[in-house]
């Protein structure tokens, strides 16, 4: 950009650095309109790691409390994810969370013995609830709300924790009474609100518009890469360990590997549209049906 009066002109290096980080908020990662998938291999690991990101919500979003309850319901101890993922031996651990700072939903599997089947099992759990095949149990829902409330309160249980939380709230632009506001909203969440949040924000994690990265053992690279391409329905960028070493090991950067597999078969948003939320919050009047007084 041109220098203002009294300012020194920017050097080419500084201009290039700014260009690289410009427009972060409108990036593919936040838009959810273009999904990207990468599978990288490492010979130093014996299991698989997966992370998926999709658009989430902010701290004061109307759906934040209901989304937190929905995530707690799915990931609770002895809940669906615990029983059908960890209990089935598909993965050692999992994460499903919303970051209000980055406004991103994050789904992660770590130390997977079978990353493809773990991904399928997690997707099926979400699909069952979104489609109505599985019902939200009232007792489990109340337990999830109680557990979430305890987590919010325990995060400020000591002076040190309260000070740290106050600093984080100031940094993220939250009010001093944010926890009180959030607890009140959590208490009002019902089954309908949980299903709304699940369909709006959790289902898109398994859509072709989400961004996915997998790290696997070197001898599983081709198998995992083909499996991910088949499951997600988009091109997958295969990154062998040699390319990582060339880029980060001081050997000089190489061009990014070209995507492998067939062209995108799944349009971004197509999977999520199958589970469109029809709750009163999502119902919008059609212009032609509006009555004029």
Give a short synopsis of this structure:
The protein has 293 residues and is α/β, with parallel strands linked by helices.
From the structure above, extract its key features.
7 strands, alpha/beta, 293 residues, disordered C terminus
Spans of at least 5 consecutive residues whose pLDDT stays below 50 are 13-32, 285-293
Mean pLDDT: 82
What's the quaternary structure here?
single chain
**H/E series, N to C?**
HHEEHHEEHHHHHEHEHEH
Q: Number of helix segments?
A: 12
Structural account:
By secondary structure, the chain is of the alpha/beta class. The protein is built from twelve helices and seven strands. The protein has helices at residues 12-20, 28-31, 64-75, 80-86, 115-131, 138-154, 159-172, 178-187, 191-202, 221-232, 241-248, 270-273; strands spanning 37-42, 48-55, 91-99, 104-112, 211-217, 236-239, 259-260. The chain has a seven-stranded mixed sheet with strand order 3-4-2-5-1-6-7. A hairpin with a 4-residue loop joins strand 3 and strand 4. The longest helix has 17 residues, at 115-131. The radius of gyration is 22 Å and the shape is globular. It starts with 11 loop residues before the first helix and ends in a 20-residue tail after the last helix.
């Amino acid at each position: 950009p041109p220098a203002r009066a009294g300012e020194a002109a920017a050097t080419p290096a500084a201009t290039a650095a700014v260009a690289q980080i410009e427009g972060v908020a409108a990036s593919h990662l936040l838009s959810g309109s273009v999904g990207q998938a990468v599978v990288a291999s490492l010979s130093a690991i014996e299991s698989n790691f997966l992370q998926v990101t999709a658009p989430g919500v902010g701290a004061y979003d109307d759906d934040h409390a209901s989304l937190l309850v929905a995530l707690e319901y799915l990931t609770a101890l002895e809940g669906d994810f615990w029983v059908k993922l960890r209990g089935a031996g598909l993965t050692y651990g999992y994460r499903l969370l919303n970051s209000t700072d980055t406004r991103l939903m994050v789904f992660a599997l770590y130390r997977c013995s079978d990353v493809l089947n773990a991904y399928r099992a997690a997707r099926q759990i979400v699909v069952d609830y979104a489609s109505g095949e599985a019902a939200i149990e009232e007792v489990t829902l109340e337990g999830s709300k109680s557990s979430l409330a305890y987590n919010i309160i325990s995060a400020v249980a000591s002076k040190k924790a309260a000070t740290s939380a106050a600093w984080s709230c100031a940094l993220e632009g939250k009010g001093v009474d944010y926890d009180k506001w959030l607890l009140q909203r959590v208490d009002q969440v019902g089954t309908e609100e949980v299903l709304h949040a699940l369909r709006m924000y959790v289902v898109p994690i398994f859509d072709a518009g989400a961004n996915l990265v997998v790290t696997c053992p070197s001898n599983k690279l081709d198998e995992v890469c083909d499996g991910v391409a088949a499951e997600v329905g988009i091109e997958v960028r295969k990154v062998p360990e040699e390319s990582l070493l060339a880029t980060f090991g001081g050997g000089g950067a190489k061009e990014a590997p070209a995507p492998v597999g067939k062209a995108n078969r799944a349009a971004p948003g197509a999977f999520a549209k199958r589970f469109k939320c029809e709750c009163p919050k999502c119902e919008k009047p059609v212009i032609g049906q509006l009555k004029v007084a």
